[in-house]
Amino acid sequence: MVSAITIDNIEHFAIGSSFLGTGGGGDPYLGSLLCREAIAKYGPVPVISVDELKDEDNVFIAAAMGAPTVMIEKLFSIEDQHRAVATLERFLGREASAIISAEIGGCNSMMPVAYSAMRGLPIVDGDGMGRAFPALQMTSFNIEGVACAPLTIADEHGNSVLYQTTTGLKAEELARPVAAAMGASVCMSCYPMTGVEARRATIPKTLSGAIAIGEAISNSSDPRPPLTRLVSALRGHEYYKDAAVVFEGKITALERDTSNGWVLGSCLISGMSGPETAELKFQNENLLVTVDGRLRCVVPDLVTIVDVETAHAIPTERLAYGQRVAVVVCSAPPLLTTARALDVVGPKCFGLEEQYIPVTELIKDLI
Amino acid sequence: MVSAITIDNIEHFAIGSSFLGTGGGGDPYLGSLLCREAIAKYGPVPVISVDELKDEDNVFIAAAMGAPTVMIEKLFSIEDQHRAVATLERFLGREASAIISAEIGGCNSMMPVAYSAMRGLPIVDGDGMGRAFPALQMTSFNIEGVACAPLTIADEHGNSVLYQTTTGLKAEELARPVAAAMGASVCMSCYPMTGVEARRATIPKTLSGAIAIGEAISNSSDPRPPLTRLVSALRGHEYYKDAAVVFEGKITALERDTSNGWVLGSCLISGMSGPETAELKFQNENLLVTVDGRLRCVVPDLVTIVDVETAHAIPTERLAYGQRVAVVVCSAPPLLTTARALDVVGPKCFGLEEQYIPVTELIKDLI
Q1: Which residues of chain A are at the B interface, by a Cβ-Cβ cutoff of 8 Å?
Q2: Backbone phi and psi for residue A213, each to the nearest 5 degrees, phi listed first
Q3: Domains along chain B?
């Protein structure tokens, strides 16, 4: 486990969490710029393990909500993030003692680091998804019975909104239209937890996991190609170990529709020298991949499109015709694949007809 | 001034505030049922004048937000109203010591009475409109510099939302879509005030004014017809004194569109025995009336359609083809017709091209 997020490892963290973002969570490049600035100004951010949390700690989430296609044009600021958290602190009458990521994917893994730096608070090595998901209720916090509300969102004009709802799904339903009215990209805080709750409901060690993945991709002293290093790092990881490259090719068709605050669509990849094709569906995040009609991975297991040369993940909003890519799949943290979890993050929660089949079975021939 | 709202005067209050509602604010009949029940259960509600408020008092609003056409089917409860106020109290860390009406029109004059009864708090003799208006920012509180936010809304499923916004217009913009998502009819609290602020920004004596108007309409010991008694009562009032019946006839055309949480439209009234016609435009409330193309009254002055026999106001959502009606107009409280006020509640705020001309000039020939 790393002891702090510093100027030296923030780049690895961005690269690794971009992979775990499975196409969503927003491009971490912009978030990493925010982190660099915050760390330069306020110093490195101490990382604490879930086990180090005291019972009475107050663990608050710093996060972004909106459409990633918008987030790359409408940038976040730490001040807006603070307004979201401060509104929640004021309502609850207690102050944050640690910050945690809601999702260890893309921008949503970066903002909590920048915000922790500004507040002088430690960040927890863990998150609520072990990857990225498009909706508020799709977290281990929710699966483990932590209430999503009160939830707050804040825009860049000084406005903030607090939701007290009976369910996470209702918070999602009432917050999404306001996020859209605020410009489809807002700062958020939700699932305020005590230390006891956070220890129970967090997917641990995903922050250090993301850094390890980023390090492997970037490790130029290893002579193997980046894609091989990535798969090797995944196979050595506690959660992501059932991993494989299921397809390589170029993007030949792309449908992307930004509506209701989400980006929905599909992507077709054709083999470089044969008739094979792979097809992906996404709702902010990649949901499934089929190769020549054969299912190779379905949510909550992870599907990420990476650049075939650099093995850097390509977020949904940066996909483009003609890109040379590889599709990498890997297993989700076990907490996401229980029967109870599949009711919250399984294929049917995304309107998919496919049943969940563990990726380890779907890629047996490739391991 | 009345000293309390009781079982005996609640009916007069409902009838009078229905007139001041100028077609909007929701049908007070349903609200008066809620009041009767609350007064029977908790006792009469003490009425205090604005001058009796102490500097450090906390004056909270109880109100409804939504489309009146929906409100007659989706009823309010005191419990939902309490959730809206309690969320605000919790956020501000102070408790209400008095309740006030945001608008002395229709349902929004009733709910505060029922809620005051439940809380055992006095209600202030005054409100923020001296009539009814369709939008949150259209209040004397706003005109006098009281912030609309923090604002809360609550639905009947246990959900509440709190807004901290930089302007009342922004609160309106962000709350309206959530109110629509909650079913176009929600309970609300906003413009939390100290006693100092409430004394400065309230339109005083409108609660007792509404009761006096209702008494006059209902006073069967006065041999004059109800319509005559109504106009006479208005002419005797401090604010509403420039009053007249500008048209009598039957409704021959009606356009009404419930969208974006409002009911928008127009109403054509034809003379009983001649070619004359009157036309009204409304956005929840009646905005203007022309008779044979001649402007007779425009917002913020009051235009109300009443039953020609009973002189009871007919709210927008109860207008129907063939009804025999009279159009009564009267002057607005002076606080609403200053240059500063017209920027908030003048014709252009409703998208009207007409300039504001005081009703006293428009009906000179009728007084």
Answers
A1: 87, 90-91, 93, 157-166, 170, 173-174, 177-178, 181-182
A2: -65, -45
A3: 4-204 (3.40.1610.10), 231-366 (2.40.390.10)
